[in-house]
Specification:
Helix content is 38%, strand content 17%. It is of the alpha/beta class.
Length: 311
């Protein structure tokens, strides 16, 4: 079994960018991610915040509908792009917020760095569409893409938990599994009764907001319902998995517990922990070197698993 690998950011540029981003997130985002703010306003604010991030050059976008669900392609323009393999990305947002548009800074960089075509799925959100709507959308999209070739399945936060639940749903139905899982700070346990120690450096998440969004998503189902909290399901038979998380992330303990549980179940799991970094810090790769490095490691893993799937 492999222990989590820790990466410690260094350098003046990193420190300056980190300080600016921390202040911005604490002042502009965390107060809005609150049960006191209506969901419609949280969605609007997240879209506005996303406009401050930049897409990299060398990637084009294309709208798509697949398996009855909207989505957005991110297609690398490089001649070295890997044909026939798709990275299906499930965005975060506590099952209530987010869209392909809010996560372009991350998904476009994954496409650029890996040379893989990336499809970001606009799955249905709660409270309008509670569980199992998102799981149904993700499962249907994965199956549709697998008809075209191997699929790597990725996601951040709620999207990471959803990616894991999707793989488990496919396994339990005897259907083809994705070739690999790439999970960024996955929300793998929605149990509201479990005590959580929020790190002092957490700049985005709070337990009241997480509990409120979980209630919207559950829609009366229990948090231990199959397909909801994959950390409490049998994890055997899953494909190779890479988990990334920061030490200042409220979900860091879940990521570490998931890594341990996967290894206990015989799954090849690698866990990368970046010191002093917050929830889904990879979103800030346009200005944060540690985020650029994390995406490069994601891309290396994705390319290796894509090559194995094609062998």
């Amino acid at each position: 079994m492999s222990a989590p690998q820790t990466f410690t950011p260094h350098g003046r540029r990193e420190a300056l960018a980190s300080d600016v981003l921390r202040t911005a997130l604490r002042c502009l985002l965390k107060p809005v991610l609150s049960p006191r703010c209506p969901i419609w306003f949280q969605r609007l604010w997240l879209r506005l915040m996303a406009q401050a991030t930049r897409m990299p050059a060398g990637v084009r976008t294309e709208s798509v509908h697949i398996a009855g669900c909207a989505g957005e392609w991110f297609l690398p323009l490089s001649n070295g792009a890997t044909p026939g393999i798709t990275l299906l990305y499930l965005h975060g947002g506590a099952y209530c917020l987010g869209s392909p548009a809010t996560h372009r800074a991350l998904t476009a960089r994954l496409a650029q760095a890996s040379g893989l075509r990336v499809l970001s799925l606009d799955y249905r959100l709660a409270p309008e569409h509670p569980f199992p709507a998102a799981l149904q959308d993700a499962t249907a999209a994965c199956l549709a893409l697998q008809a075209q070739g191997p699929v790597l399945l990725a996601g951040d936060s709620a999207g990471g938990g959803l990616a894991l639940s999707t793989a488990l749903a496919l396994r339990d139905q005897g259907l083809p599994l994705p070739a690999a899982l790439l999970l960024l700070a996955p929300w793998a346990d929605l149990s509201p009764s479990k005590p959580v120690t929020v790190p002092a450096g957490e700049v985005m998440l709070s337990m009241p907001w997480a509990k409120a969004c979980a209630a919207h998503y559950l829609g009366g189902h229990g948090a231990d319902q199959p397909g909801v909290s994959p950390l409490h399901q049998p994890l055997h038979g899953l494909p190779p998995t890479l988990i990334q998380v920061g030490t200042d992330d409220m979900l860091c303990p879940q990521a570490l517990a998931l890594h341990h549980a996967l290894q206990q179940a015989g799954v090849s799991s690698r866990c990368e922990v970046t010191a002093h970094r917050w929830h889904v810090f990879q979103m800030h790769a346009d200005v944060l070197p540690s985020a650029q490095e994390a995406i490069a490691r994601l891309a290396t893993f994705a390319k290796a698993q894509a090559a194995s799937a094609q062998a």
